[in-house]
Amino acid sequence: MNSSLKIARADKWNQSDILFCVARPNDSDRLFVGSSDFGVYEFDLSAEKPERVRLEGEQHQSYVTGLAVAGPMLISGSYDGQLIWWDLAEQRSTRVVPAHDRWIRRVIASPDQTRIISVADDMLCKVWDVATGELLTQFSDHGEKTPHHYPSMLYAVAASPDGRFLATGDRVGHVAIWNADSYEKVGEVETPVMYTWDPRQRRHSIGGIRSLAFSADGTQLAVGGMGKVGNIDHLGGPSRLEVFEWSSGTRRFEIEDDKKKGLIEQIVWHPSGDWLLGAGGDHKGFLNIYDMHSGELVTQESSDGHVHGLVADAALENLVTAGHNRLERWTIAAG
Amino acid sequence: MKRKAWCGSADHPVSRRGFLGAAAAGTAFAADMTVLDALKQPALAEELKRQQKRVILLWLAGGASQLETWDPKPGVETGGPFRTIQTTVPGLHISELLPQQSERMQQTAVIRSLNTKIADHGGGYRLMETGRLPEPGVAFPHLGAILARELGRIDSHVPDHVSMYTSTEGRRKGTAGFLGARYNPMFLTENMMPENIRRLEAISEADHQDRAALRDFFAERFSRTVDSAAVASHGTAYERVRGLMASDRLFDISEEPQAMRDKYGPTQFGEQCLIARRLVEAGVPFVKVARAWWDSHGQNFETHRELCADLDHCMSALMDDLADRGLLENTLVITLGEFGRTPRINGSLGRDHFARAWSCTLTGCGIKGGAVYGKTDDKGETVVDGEIGAADLFATIFAAVGIDYEKEYMLGSRPIPIADFGATPVEEVLA
Fold first, then answer.
1. Phi first, then psi: what are they for A226, rounded to 5°?
2. Is the CB of B169 less than 8 angstroms away from the CB of A63?
3. Tens digit of pLDDT for each residue in B77-101?
4. Interchain contact, B77 vs A17, CB within 8 Å
5. What is the ipTM of this complex?
6. How many helices (H) and strands (E) in chain A?
7. Domains of chain A: which residue ranges?
8. Among A71, A257, A332, B353, which residue is least crowded by beta carbons within 10 Å?
9. B349 contact partners, CB below 8 Å, separation of at least 6
């Protein structure tokens, strides 16, 4: 890869709320975010000073934590357990689906945009028909309790770019890989370091798998989170990335970074497979570029706030991050 | 919301002198109350009744969030993601993280208006363990030591004051201060079986019993010829030690049926709550169970999802078990920590230390179940009604278990009230 890649902030728009997720119809200037004020908002990035507009109609009753674009629709998921369909042209909600019994953590669209996949703390992965809103199937390979008898959480889901596979990842570091047609489990990998249980000082846990991403050819799976934490009062652990050849269960890389700590919340592979981008943070944010030949973190940039969501163009040259009190636009280019 | 202070009438509290006299009488005559018809003597009957009161303190070490427990603010920027649930008390909502508690709120009073100002762990702990600010040169006693002294029996065969704190973060033993070592806690940290009270393995049970019998024989002969308080005290001390040695089984929950253990659940906190029930059932007047560590500067919501599940289940099992055994009406269960947490959500989705507007609960003995006292503003940033401090809370606790909160200890010639000067109980939560 070109090890001289540079990340540069192009714009920053401060917000009063926390933005947990972001979605964008194919490379358009329309950007949608999910907020801690329970709203879904649109920004027009072509404007000199983008103003946010709240989508109207039925609203969520808790933090909006997942967004996915599927054709003319935007589908949001929330800690209230509901999925809401929004008509992008009308900027209004058109369908509300009680989807999960617990917090929805992530919502994605299948690559062909015919299905929506959601994961939640009821530990279920559910697949929905975009056109009808009907539940097509549900499955799980994730325990409801941690080994220490506390509620577990199902944070992450990803689809392979060719649409053949899904992956789900939970709080205790278990990843299951699924055939996206039959929904049968076809593989699994373990990342136990992502889960820190403190049995002595504080007697609870922190961490979990927060992000998953398949490589362009679908053979590799990147898993993001945080390494072992000394003081679990804070997000004070090293960011941690593990990369697997998932069909054989071979772990290619374990990459930790202590300079900018915290959770890796989002992962995006470059189409070439040469490198990938990870973003997240503790009370601050980071964007990291990892070389997928050497397994090294090669480039790093800071954000003033934790990065929760990320959307990028196909070439991974322009991206927007959503996070704590801010929306930021970035570019990645050879330095 | 105005609170009524204790009326101060001499008719209500038993006088200190009368109190002590009655206590002494209770101790001396308890062995044969039927002969003396002790319960027909008002002061003594009151004293004996008071001595049946028990307190279990569920110490939420590190500072639980009032917004994720007892004073939720859904839908505002400080409110966080959780919704509220309606409880069995009309109009009373608590966090959805406490579903089992929501079904039991008719037994619990919530105080939502603590303003204790001190928001560092050490200072907050010292304030909330003694009910007052520290003073140079005065070692104020821990709440548990005061209750052990006031509710315990001098001839008790079980410990007066047991404190369980297994996590290392924030672990503080708590001291009896000027009340003396007699009221220091039996402090359990590494495991739940008290150390150093077991009979030495080198001494058989038979030898142990024979030695006791021989000592009793000589002591009884000696006391026939020498009428001395010192001799009596010596005998009492031996009795107490033998009682404590025999109390180790109270900490052994393997004696409980599996069905009962299942009700409390598999977590350490659950097991410790079960031990607490066994202890109060056996007559231990004060038990503290510390559940650490709620100090959620990062990932507050994940932390409370974990810890509230533990608190909700274990506290509910404890309340049910106490009620089933007829113990809840005489046992006060308190949830309290050193402070609450900030309404503001920080960049790590955490909440920081906050002592200006936070909550606690009181359940059972002497409490008006379903009562809600105090109010915070819409964002939970300030108390807008019924503000109280640590001393008022202590006065409320004392009043709930029948202790005159204006009672004074004498430290040399200086009177020290058991609840700090100016404290008044929250009458609205008292039965």
1. -140, 145
2. no
3. 999 999 999 999 999 999 999 999 9
4. yes
5. 0.95
6. 0, 28
7. 5-334
8. A71
9. A18, A306, A324, B298, B299, B300, B301, B302
B99 at interface of A, judged by CB pairs closer than 8 A: no
Between β-strands A52-54 and A40-44, what pairing exists: parallel, antiparallel or unpaired? antiparallel
Q: How far apart are CA B351 and CA B137, in angstroms?
A: 35
Segment B386-398 shows an average pLDDT of 98
CA angle (B184 as vertex; B178, B185 as ends), nearest 5 = 150
Rounded distance between C-alpha atoms, residue A264 and residue B340, angstroms: 29
**Does the beta-carbon distance from B167 to A235 stay under 8 Å?**
no
Q: Does B71 touch chain A (CB under 8 A)?
A: no
Length of chain A: 335
CATH of A5-334, one of 3.30.230.10, 3.20.20.140, 2.130.10.10, 3.40.50.620: 2.130.10.10
CB neighbour class for B107 (10 Å; exposed up to 12, middle 13-18, buried from 19): buried
- Average of per-residue pLDDT values in chain B: 87
Radius of gyration of chain B (CA): 22
Find where tokens 């040399």 sit: B412
* B223 φ, ψ (degrees, to nearest 5): -70, -20
A147 has a chain B CB within 8 A of its CB: no
Q: What is the DSSP secondary structure assignment for residue A240, as one 8-state letter? A: E
Distance of CA B39 to the CA centre of its chain: 27
Contact A151 B305 (CB under 8 A): yes
Residue in B96, B191, B348 to test binding to A, most A beta-carbons within 10 Å: B348
Torsion angle (degrees, nearest 10) of CA A318, A323, A328, A333: -40
pTM of the model: 0.89
pLDDT tens for each residue of B261-299: 999 999 999 999 999 999 999 999 999 999 999 999 999
Spatial separation of the C-alpha atoms in residues B177 and B145, rounded to whole Å: 8
Q: Let me know: does A298 contact A290? Beta carbons within 8 Å.
A: yes
DSSP string, A94-159: EEEEE--SS-EEEEEE-TTSSEEEEEETTS-EEEEETTT--EEEEE----SB-TTSSB--EEEEEE
Cis peptide before A103 (omega within 30 of 0): no
**Number of CB atoms found within 10 A of residue B370's CB:** 18
Asked if the model's pLDDT at residue B4 lies above 80, the reply is no
For residues B44 and B18, what is the distance between their CA atoms, to the nearest angstrom? Answer: 9
CA A223, CA A240: separation in Å to the nearest integer? Answer: 8
Classify residue A209 as exposed, middle or buried by CB count within 10 Å of its CB (0-12, 13-18, 19+): buried
- Neighbouring CB atoms inside 10 A of A302's CB total 14
